[in-house]
């Protein structure tokens, strides 16, 4: 018989969500309740395999009696709480956050953002010229004036292509810290990347900004798995996007078990035109929770080596 771990029984907490009385298990966050009830609250920095960071401020909601808006991703529900997720104040806050993010980072490969921009009427141009999607300034981080003299993005820098496996395109980074948490004590324990600099110079970096092959990185790709904006991507994806051949509508996903060792991690192979173009891992797998090692994540080239034998 298979034993299913349901965790400890939890008392129910009653509160009001957008006018409806709701009860949820004690310890649930406002975002947990919204997700369970199908109420969309946008978020970028929340990850289902990570602890909330409260970094992006997209999921702010109103709680009666609270002077400020509160982050739905981390605020736990208490008895009698009254929460509003879609008020004038929350919509205004989301509009502003989207404008600030869109004016400092290239969000062109962030899923859902275009829809949110339209829904909340966000106009990043109010905060200056949009972050450029290409032809980024070649100057090192810290010199953020764009060639036309305007103040450029915090992370205004060209994509870092320093290995054959994955690319770091920090012009798309919103500093959500998910990659740092995935690389650090929450999962990989490699601590290869962290936030460097302060204020407008804050950026994700390896130690002493070393190229990835000279850093502590072990190429598990767990940072890519959680990056919400495409700032971190497989080299295959980066190259195909540059060529204009990346097309998710033509891709198939096949989840299988990695064959390299006996751990049994689940891998999802993303294929386009019968070639593997990216590998992810299901976050609900109890084996790896979305994490892999270098072999499972990147060791698939042999599968499609169809050169005839000599
Ligand atoms: S690939 Fe793994 S070790 Fe390297 S930076 Fe990303 S999470 Fe850290
Ligand atoms: S690289 Fe991606 S995961 Fe890391 S901080 Fe930037 S947006 Fe977040």
Automatic annotation (TrEMBL):
Domain (2Fe-2S ferredoxin-type): residue spans on this chain: 11-89
Domain 4Fe-4S ferredoxin-type: 208-237
Taxonomic lineage: Bacteria, Bacillati, Actinomycetota, Actinomycetes, Pseudonocardiales
Region annotation Disordered: where it falls in the sequence: 125-152
Organism: Saccharopolyspora kobensis
GO molecular function: 4 iron, 4 sulfur cluster binding; metal ion binding; oxidoreductase activity
Pfam families in the record: Fer2_4, Fer4_7, Molybdop_Fe4S4
Protein name listed in UniProt: 4Fe-4S binding domain-containing protein
Keywords attached to this entry: 4Fe-4S, Iron, Iron-sulfur, Metal-binding, Repeat
Occurrences of domain 4Fe-4S Mo/W bis-MGD-type (ranges): 251-307
Comp. bias intervals (Basic and acidic residues): 133-147
SMART domains recorded: Molybdop_Fe4S4
PROSITE patterns cross-referenced by the UniProt entry: 2FE2S_FER_2, 4FE4S_FER_1, 4FE4S_FER_2, 4FE4S_MOW_BIS_MGD, MOLYBDOPTERIN_PROK_1
